[in-house]
Design brief:
With about 250 residues, this protein is of the alpha/beta class. The chain is built from nine helices and ten strands. The structure holds adenosine-5'-diphosphate and magnesium ion.
Amino acid sequence: MSALLEVANLNKHFGGLHAVKDVSFTVEPGEIVGILGPNGAGKTTLYNLLTGFIAPDPGATVLFEGSSLLGVAPHRIAGRGISRTFQLCRPFIGMSVLENVIVGALGSKRGQGADLDARAQALLGRVGLAGKEGVPVEVLSYGDQRRLEIARALAAKPALLLLDEPFAGLGSGEIADLSALIRQVHTDEGLTVLLIEHKLREFMRLVGRVIALDFGEVIAQGTPEDIVRHPAVIEAYIGRSDPVETEPQHAA
Ligand SMILES: Nc1ncnc2c1ncn2[C@@H]1O[C@H](COP(=O)(O)OP(=O)(O)O)[C@@H](O)[C@H]1O
Ligand SMILES: [Mg+2]
């Protein structure tokens, strides 16, 4: 009843491809929930549906704080308190690092207000980009772009943060740092987080609950411990005896 996010009967067809199949789940305030699944399982499509980038097939329910998000434009969904990062970073080219964070803040009423500059600077410090405020985004390293994505998403002061493979392409030190940052904003700001990730070892440490997808369908939900032992999950990661150790891929 008090779920932050409630999703039911969510479907998406791309032509003949049933990319998201009857997905239903809820997220409670303050949870960190992981979305697990091999490439092509429908994870990014799920985010695109939740954030209004694409429309689901008829019959779905998507409630955020009790109100429907169906038919609501992406910028309005952001304004209601859902921020996301993209699997491939999408900085605003031609702007500085600081300007990118400010634009992120302006994208939502919640993020606007006095001291925008100071708040953006503080966020950059928090994600480890202090001193790079004036740098054009296009010269940032890949790891720094990932940090900027998170600062930009946080600038909007979201209630729900959707992270799409935030550790992709990062080294183990950077992953540990970013993971600590996610944990910290979760604790400090009571932020609810939905996390898609393929770096399973870190993922399993970070999340309290996992929703496992395969071919668009929820095949299991539970604690990380339950999920790594779940026969359907093991089956989805064909040929891997220990799914926690490996990078998931569907055998083509
Ligand atoms: N806009 C689109 N048009 C057609 N097919 C798409 C589109 N977006 C995703 N797909 C397909 O939907 C399936 C799920 O994709 P995606 O959600 O990106 O998977 P994941 O993020 O789990 O790797 C894939 O088969 C993908 O090719
Ligand atoms: Mg994806």
